Amino acid sequence: MPLGHIPGVRSLALTDLRRGVGLLEQELATLLGVSSWLVNHYENAKEPSFELLVAWGGRMGYTEEQVEWTVFGLSQMKRAAPGPGSLVEPAPALMHRVRAVAGRAARAFFEILDRSLTRVARDWLVRKARREAEKLWAELERTPPDLRRAVVLASRRFHTWALAERLAYASAKAAADRADRALELAQLSLLVAELCPGDAASLSALRGFSRGYLGNARRVANQILRAGEDFDRALAEWQAGSPAMRQVLPAWHLKDLEGSLRRDQRRFPEALARLAEAQAAAPPEAIARIMVNRAAVFEYMWDPQGAIEVLQEAIPLAAAGRRDEPRLPWSIHMNLGVNLCHLARYDEAERLLPTIQQLFGYPRRELDEIRVVWLRGRIWAGLGRVADAREAFDRARQAYEKHNLALNYAVVTLERALLDLQAGRHDEVKALAREMQWIFEAAGLQPEALAALDLFREAAEQERASRELAEQMVRYLYRVQYDPELKFEAVEPGRAGSNGLGEPGSV
Questions:
Q1: In 3D, which of 218, 214, 272, 283 has the Cα closest to residue 250?
Q2: Strand stretches in 273-391, DSSP E
Q3: Could you tell me if 227 and 261 are in contact, meaning their C-beta atoms sit under 8 angstroms apart?
Q4: Residues 158-197: tens digit of each pLDDT
Q5: Tens digits of residue pLDDT in 10-40
Q6: Is the peptide bond between 363 and the residue preceding it cis, with omega within 30 degrees of 0?
Q7: What is the CATH number of the domain that holds 18?
Q8: Which residues 6+ apart lie within 8 Å of 39 measured at CB?
Q9: Do 207 and 240 form a contact (C-beta atoms < 8 A)?
Q10: pLDDT at 501
Q11: How far is residue 133 CA from its own chain's centroid?
């Protein structure tokens, strides 16, 4: 029997519990398999036992604790007021105040304890779900990619919110190297989110989260229009989602991804705003990487100084994220060197080279190694070490031709041509221009860029190519990758830098 019970309260409790689930007496009797007379009898004549009340309450969906709380609350409501006249007991007015204070304190303590224990229980469930998702992802990772969708469809074990989250993170990681793999994993994440059981509001937030990563994968695959459509829908689903789910899934991830998309859409103020919001909400280990994204926005805006300032600020923060992203410190220093070269600050860039080499971990990516070679070539060209620069540029050219990276190849070839133009070696400039023939047949170069390169090739054949033309061409090719409609004539002449200002793909 609950503490402080007052006779008659269990009858009131039975009526309150019945009405709480919207049942009439006859409907409760049908649910319990008893007569409506018995239900009426216990509500209005004879008080049911506490055990019977708990049993009937359970059939209505209540826990024993909820039944006991109902009885306790009604007991306090019907509790007799203190009588007057005692020589030692507080007066009735004071007792009313005491009970009011005690009631408020008890309710406040209950709410605090309830919130605290709920948070502990939720955190435990979230950690458990994420541990299980790691095991499920390990299974899928071992499964051939063309069979993963069938495996997910066939087994409900894979229909969990935590696996959808884990697949989204795997997609983002794959985006650094393989756009096709990133897209496959993002689509799988969204499939899991759509198959996952749960309430509509929670599932809306989950789908919005997964769809945001699908938009990111499309962005990496240069499907900018579809990426924007996916992301707009993702944000709508996310905003319609439950606050609880939006607390579990890190909202700053979506802001970070949106910042990258708005950058590629050339909506730069929005990109910087979203990345600032992501940085404010992100954990310490993620801040440096978000700052690298911010620096990339400044590069797209052709503001090397702005990029340098952000990257320098990110350097001391990069160590916090090094466990999960070991390339991050190297990437920050590498991009810093690139932007210093944009501003012809070659001495400062050269001082970074030992650090860049020291931070270059294993296993090394071939294209990252070529980026370092290219950076050295640019620095040495700027410092007048022509023979070393020519050798570095030739190594980079060979690698980019091997990987069919036409724009990179075009820029480094023009940087090499600058060295030959300075030395008056027009025959070699002609040869370089002819060697660029393959890029006119390669996919991916914008028409404006091809037109500009054709102009340089024609000038080289007629020995009209000049150092100024090559400088402007390099600067233009760097910028046109971020602004495909930019015309070559729009690039202003006379900008600082003697060996060209660009390295496509530096971010």
A1: 283
A2: none
A3: yes
A4: 999 999 999 999 999 898 778 899 999 999 999 999 999 9
A5: 888 889 889 888 999 999 999 999 999 999 9
A6: yes
A7: 1.10.260.40
A8: 14, 18, 25, 28, 29, 32
A9: no
A10: 32
A11: 18
Q: How far apart are CA 356 and CA 372, in angstroms?
A: 8
Alpha carbon dihedral 136, 142, 147, 149, in 10-degree steps, equals 30
Cα 164 from Cα 184, distance rounded (Å): 13
Residues 6+ apart with CB under 8 A from 149: 188, 191
Phi-psi sector, 411: left (phi>0), alpha (psi -120 to 50), beta: alpha
**Cα–Cα distance, 419 to 429 (Å, whole number):** 9
pTM over 0.85: no
132 and 55 inside one domain: no
Looking from the CA of 215 toward its CB, the CA atoms found within 13 Å total 28
H helix or E strand, kind and range, residue 15: helix 9-20
Tokens of 317: 């923060």
Token digits of residue 256: 């970070």
Residue 495 predicted with pLDDT over 80: no
- In terms of Cα–Cα distance, which of 223, 216, 220 is closest to 169? 216
Instruction: Round to whole Å and give the CA distance between 507 and 505.
Output: 6
204: domain range? 118-249
Domain containing residue 409: CATH number: 1.25.40
Domains of the chain: total: 3
Q: What are phi and psi of 302, to 5 degrees?
A: 55, 60
Angle subtended at Cα 310 by Cα 304 and Cα 311, rounded to the nearest 5 degrees: 85
Which token pair is 197?
């059981």
Task: List pLDDT tens digits, range 88-124.
Answer: 777 777 777 777 777 677 667 767 777 777 788 888 9
- State whether 182 and 64 are in the same domain: no
What one-character-per-residue DSSP string does 130-181 give?
HHHHHHHHHHHHHS-HHHHHHHHHH-GGG--HHHHHHHHHHHHHHTTT-HHH
3-state secondary structure 204-250: HHHHHHHHHHHHHHHHHCCCHHHHHHHHHHHHHHHHHCCHHHHHHCC
> Of 45, 75, 105, which one is at a domain's C-terminal end?
75
* Structure-token pair, residue 123: 């955190």
Residue 197 CA to residue 174 CA, distance in Å, equals 27
d(CA 216, CA 227): 7
Picking from 249, 267, 290, the residue at the C-terminal end of a domain is 249
Residue 324 has pLDDT above 70, yes or no: no
CA distance 456 to 305: 29
506: pLDDT confidence band, cut at 50, 70 and 90? very low
Instruction: Provide the residue type at 353 as one letter.
Output: L
Distance in angstroms (rounded) separating the CA atoms of residues 471 and 279: 36
